[in-house]
Design goal:
The complex is a heterodimer. By secondary structure, chain A is mainly alpha-helical. In chain A, about 75% of the residues lie in helices and about 5% in strands. Chain A is built from 27 helices and two strands. In chain A, strands 1-2 form a two-stranded antiparallel sheet. Chain A is globular and about 70 Å long. The N and C termini of chain A lie far apart (about 65 Å). Chain B has helices at about 5-20, 25-45, 75-95, 105-125, 125-150, 155-180, 190-200, 205-225, 235-240, 240-250, 255-265, 270-275, 275-295, 300-320, 325-355, 375-385, 395-405, 415-445, 450-455, 460-480, 485, and strands at about 55-65, 70-75. A two-stranded antiparallel sheet of chain B has the order 1-2. In chain B, helix 2 runs parallel beside helix 4, helix 6 packs antiparallel against helix 8 and helix 15 (about 325-355) runs antiparallel to helix 20. The longest helix of chain B has about 30 residues, at about 325-355. The relative contact order of chain B is 0.10. Classes of the chains: A mainly alpha, B mainly alpha. The interface between A and B is large, with 73 and 80 residues.
Chain lengths: ~600, ~500
């Protein structure tokens, strides 16, 4: 059997073994899960360094000439994505050993992580749309399980439900898109769709609609406007989950899918432009909202939204390589930031409000240093951070293709250092503002080492172009950034960062409050209203019609027929169901007898 | 005698034996277990059968020459899948069945008769027996609700009886007209293969087809709770004892769908004439009843409505099949199987919950996963299966139905009614996620409410998990590796 199959099946096996057999032995369960993640990491390392395309197929269904496989497609894109997923995945598995050490549901947690690794691997390796959709949904359910891990509290449970349903709305479009693409190109496999594309290109508007429907899937999974509302709430889950699923990997699945179908985007130019705009606007919207959040994880969540917006924008601008490169660097530094936030939360007895922290850099030097490195990468400190190179790549693509989007992206590049420096100053500098924070201790080694492991690539990865080439991440080695782009982004960094220092140095409370921004522009309220009044109203109306009209008329109608014949009515008057059933049976036999006598 | 004869006669014989004094529960379970085994043997041996040589395990005994009626059995892919569904659900339902205070014998005899009737209807190749077997199964259903039901059982039993009896009569009229329309040289036949041959050789006139198809649609439709003929289902399922609702919602209700799939190829013009009507009605099931499901406060009533809603997807597969999209038929059959297992599982678990808590009012429950994690896990599996999560058979069926809606569409052609209905039906997937997750959240997650209510609840024991595990296994195997069943479904 090809090793790639193990890549897919090992985490599933781990999850199944934990659920079925080792629930009671928590340490064993966690060891199984971490072991599976480690082996998966090694296998994905072994897959690197090859450039050929390989397809492995297992027949899942076959009807007439339609065959649907559980198929693995190994190419540069999937190999490099597998490397990202398994590397970050393994590090976060290890970190979880510390973070979830005393958790009651530790076995369930690690089963969930393994289930997630299985599902994510399936998306990455998928060779056709049906398989991608299958794992797309499975990622959704593993995210549901993990967000709702602490299921006896109401907020995580509500957040898990919201995440699943919001994703399903996106998946509605995704599935319709799959059906449309199938009818246009006659294939469900990516290679077959590419072959059928020339014929389908004769119907540009149908193709454009199909591509937009497919994009709906990415809007849900990558939390783009207007389906972004689930991601900030998903922070109710354990922090390692936020790092792995809701920052580094699962939410990047939408970007990965767009990269996978880059050839379709190229063939449907109007849709691609719209996609780029949705990405750009999401980046801007989320960056604005991030400036007024007080919960450390929510700030990072909105930052994730914003960075995902960058990637989606790049994909829409057909700069797939830039999107994937940013996905790659972002996975490491954003996981680092979340794990750092987790360390802080862990040390401060589950305090998440940055205004109640302060001065943490003294008690938690390692966490502070690595968090600062992650911040530097996110705000794209020139030439020394990985984030700089990938962000330049995206900005440059915008500059050369779409001036408006470039300026939007530049504003985002200004806002990012603003909210991150704010976070850093308020949480780590100044004086401790609560007793828990004063007594905060540095995290144990099992959590500290993962921080270091993620900090290294956040700085260094872009320097080793040989390594990057081996991983097959598309990267801008020979890429000359336009001087204006470079100037603008450095100015944005200095301006945003400087402004934040000006406003937030030595502050103990928020100096100014912009209610609409802090309240996320009221999207949640709007959707709650829609659900309550539109969906709820329609449902109540349907229930009313069902009771009064459909049931009422039918019952009366039958009653009248019965009265007309007098036959059924008498039966009803007998009032005894046994007697009726007997008579009914006799009636049937009589009918059959008459029939036979014909 | 064919193995199929044994499968049909075994539960009948067990019913007789119970009537004659053998211990009710043990006899019934033994028969169901043996039937499960026979069903699996039939599955294993069916693989060697060449489908072009007609149905497998065929056997026939003539009952009457003219009209030609025979006790005839035979197995093709579709009836194989329904056979497996029936034996699996029967075993689980009988295992699950408790012991009522009075009339224990009548209780088990009725359950066995439902099983036997369903098996007969799915395995016979004779239209006469197809109808008769269904009637055989229907009457004990009414009895079970009326005598052993709970809550407002009289009214519920009355309603389901009126509805389904009326539906059966319309169906009977349609079937008789169909047989009469296919008279050849003065010879009437009830043999399904012969009827199909005659219909192919000399199609029935368009206007007769139109009338017959409409009667069949109304008749079969009533039995399956096709919108707007569905209002018998919710009160009946809420009132019925658990094993009865498992057998009816899980198995017997599939009869109408099965019949429509079997007979609509005989009436292509009629099916085409009424396609738009069928599409509108099935969207009524999916969207309208889906919305009604959202408003349900009691778990049993919610499950009953969700079951009605999901019939819409199977009808969509049938509609696609009638438009010559064979994927739709395969999807419909797989979905019958999947829905049967998952709804039986959900009702089994709901039944246990009610037994322990005395109430299924979701507004008063909460946090049960804390004290009954295994139960919550199983219910979660069933809930996710029923909303079509990949990995469960339900997804396999649904995706085939949806593909059926778009099969052999010319590239760039404008979308027809079937495609638009399919897209709207895909939206139903969101609705079902909303009501299922809401219910799961309300019952199992969050904070425990009123500890006195939940004090008597204990987690499942191994013996209680067995039937549920059997149903879950069926759902998972077919979901993960559908080809093992789907390969028999060539239309």
């Amino acid at each position: 059997m090809e090793p790639a199959w193990f890549l897919l099946l090992l985490p599933l096996l781990a999850a199944a073994v934990i659920i079925l057999f080792t629930r009671k032995w928590k340490t064993l369960s966690s060891a199984i899960s971490v072991g599976a993640a480690a082996v998966a990491f090694l296998i994905s390392l072994g897959l690197l360094g090859r450039n050929d395309e390989q397809v492995l197929a297992f027949r899942w269904m076959e009807i007439g000439d339609l065959r649907i496989d559980i198929g693995i497609l190994l190419d540069g894109l999937s190999r490099s994505m597998m490397f990202t997923v398994t590397t970050v995945g393994l590090i976060i598995h290890i970190y979880s050993l510390g973070y979830m050490r005393n958790d009651e549901g530790k076995s369930r947690y690690f089963a969930g992580l393994s289930l997630f690794m299985f599902s994510m691997t399936g998306i990455v390796l998928a060779e056709n749309f049906i398989m991608m959709f299958i794992f797309w949904e499975l990622v959704g359910v593993s995210s549901y399980v993990l967000i709702g891990h602490w299921f006896t509290r109401n907020p995580p449970v509500e957040a898990a439900k919201k995440a699943f349903i919001t994703n399903r709305i996106g998946d509605f479009g995704f599935l319709v898109g799959i059906l449309l693409i199938w009818s246009l190109t006659g294939s469900l496999a990516f290679s077959g769709i590419q072959e059928g594309l020339p014929a389908a290109a004769a119907y540009p508007s149908a193709l454009a609609i199909a591509v937009l429907c497919l994009f709906c899937g990415a809007v849900g999974k990558s939390a783009q406007l207007p389906l972004h509302v689930w991601l900030p709430d998903a922070m109710e889950g354990p922090t390692p989950v936020s790092a792995l699923i809701h920052a580094a990997t699962m939410v990047a699945a939408g970007v990965y899918m767009l990269a996978r179908i880059g050839f379709l985007l190229a063939a449907a130019a109007p849709s691609a432009v719209l996609i780029a705009w949705i990405g750009g606007l999401t980046a801007l919207f989320a960056a604005v909202v991030a400036t007024q959040q007080d919960d450390i994880k929510r700030i990072l969540a909105y930052s994730t939204l914003s960075q995902l917006g960058y990637m989606i924008m790049a994909a829409g601008l057909l700069a797939t390589q830039a999107a994937m490169f940013h996905l790659f660097t972002h996975a490491f530094f954003k996981a680092l930031l979340f794990l750092g936030a987790g360390a802080v939360i862990h040390a401060c007895h589950h305090e998440q409000n940055i205004w109640k922290m302060g001065g943490l850099r003294k008690n938690m030097p390692l966490t502070f240093a690595t968090f600062a490195i992650g911040t530097a990468a996110l705000v794209a400190v020139p030439y020394v951070t990985s984030g700089f190179f990938s962000k330049e790549y995206i900005l440059d693509a915008a500059w050369s293709q779409n001036g408006n989007l470039f300026w939007i992206a530049a504003i985002v590049a200004f806002l990012t250092p603003f909210y991150m420096i704010r976070l850093l100053l308020v949480a780590f500098f100044g004086r401790a503002r609560s007793r828990h924070v004063e007594q905060a201790r540095e995290v144990p080694l099992v959590m500290g080492v993962p921080l270091l492991l993620l900090a290294v690539p956040s700085i260094a990865i872009a320097w080793f172009s040989g390594l990057i080439e081996w991983i097959q991440i598309p990267h801008p080695e020979h890429h000359a950034t336009h001087p204006i782009v470079l100037t603008v982004s450095i100015l944005a960094l200095l301006g945003g960062g400087g402004l934040a220092i000006l406003f937030y140095r030595e502050r103990a409370s928020e100096p100014f409050r912009a209610a609409p921004v802090a309240d996320k522009f009221y999207f949640d309220e709007l959707y709650d209203g829609l659900v309550r009044y539109i969906q709820g109203g329609l449902a109540s109306l349907s229930a009313f019609l069902d009771r009064s009209v459909i049931d009422g008329i039918a019952v009366k109608g039958i009653g009248r027929i019965a009265a007309g014949t007098g036959y059924l009515l008498r039966l009803i008057q007998v009032g005894n169901i046994q007697a009726y059933a007997f008579l009914f049976g006799m009636g049937v036999i009589l009918t059959i007898f008459l029939l036979l006598a014909l | 005698m064919s193995i199929l004869d044994f499968i049909i006669l075994l539960p009948l014989a067990a019913a007789l034996a119970i009537g004659a004094g053998l211990p009710a529960r043990r006899t019934a379970l033994a028969a169901a277990g043996l039937n499960l085994l026979l069903g699996l043997i039939a599955l294993a041996r069916f693989g060697n059968h060449d489908p072009s040589s007609g149905p497998a395990f065929a056997a026939s005994r003539t009952v009457s020459r003219n009209p030609e009626i025979a006790w005839a059995v035979g197995l093709d892919g579709m009836s194989l899948v329904l056979l497996l569904l029936t034996v699996l659900v029967t075993f689980a339902a009988l295992w699950q069945a408790g012991t009522p205070k009075d009339n224990v014998r009548l209780f088990y005899i009725s359950l066995l008769l439902i099983s036997a009737g369903s098996l007969g209807a799915f395995l016979t190749t004779d239209l006469f027996f197809l109808y008769a077997f269904h009637e055989l199964a229907l009457i004990p259903t009414f009895l079970l609700i009326g005598i052993f039901g709970k809550g407002d059982r009289r009214a519920a039993a009355w309603k389901i009886t009126i509805y389904l009896a009326a539906g059966s009569l319309v169906l009977l009229a349609g079937l008789l007209l169909l047989v009469l329309a296919l008279v050849q040289d003065g010879a009437l036949t009830f043999d399904l293969a012969a009827l199909a041959e005659r219909a192919a050789a000399q199609p029935i006139g368009d206007s007769s087809q139109s009338l017959i198809y409409l009667l069949l649609l109304i008749g079969f439709g009533t039995l399956v709770a096709l919108f707007p003929l569905h209002s018998w289902a919710a009160p009946a399922y809420a009132a019925a004892p658990t094993p009865a609702v498992m057998l009816h919602a899980g198995v017997l209700k599939k009869f109408g769908l099965y019949g429509l799939l079997r007979l609509s190829p005989l009436l292509p013009a009629g099916a085409e004439r009424w396609l738009t009507l069928l599409l509108v009605l099935l969207l009524g099931n999916i969207l309208f009843v889906g919305l009604v499901t959202l408003t349900q406060k009691r778990l049993d009533s919610m499950l009953a409505h969700s079951s009605v809603m999901h019939m819409g997807y199977i009808f969509l597969g049938i509609a696609a099949f009638q438009a010559d999209h064979t994927l739709g038929a395969a999807g419909a059959v797989l979905l019958m199987f999947a829905h049967g297992l998952s709804i039986a599982l959900l009702f089994a678990l709901a039944g246990r919950l009610e037994e322990k808590l005395g109430s299924l009012d979701m507004t008063k429950l909460g946090g049960l996963a804390k004290i009954t994690p295994r139960f919550a896990f199983l219910f979660g599996l069933a809930a996710f299966a029923s909303i079509g999560l990949p990995g469960f058979a339900n997804f396999t069926g649904e995706i085939l139905v949806f593909l059926g809606g778009f099969q052999s569409l010319e590239p760039g052609a404008p979308l027809g009614g079937l495609q638009i209905a399919t897209i709207l039906a895909v939206w139903g997937v969101v609705i079902s996620a909303v009501y299922m997750l809401r219910a799961y959240r309300a019952i199992f997650l969050g904070e425990l409410t009123e500890s006195n209510v939940t004090a008597s609840l204990t987690d499942l024991t191994l013996s209680q998990k067995l039937p549920a595990g059997l149903l879950v296994a069926g759902l998972l195997v077919t979901g993960i590796y559908p080809w093992f069943l789907q390969r028999f479904l060539e239309f």
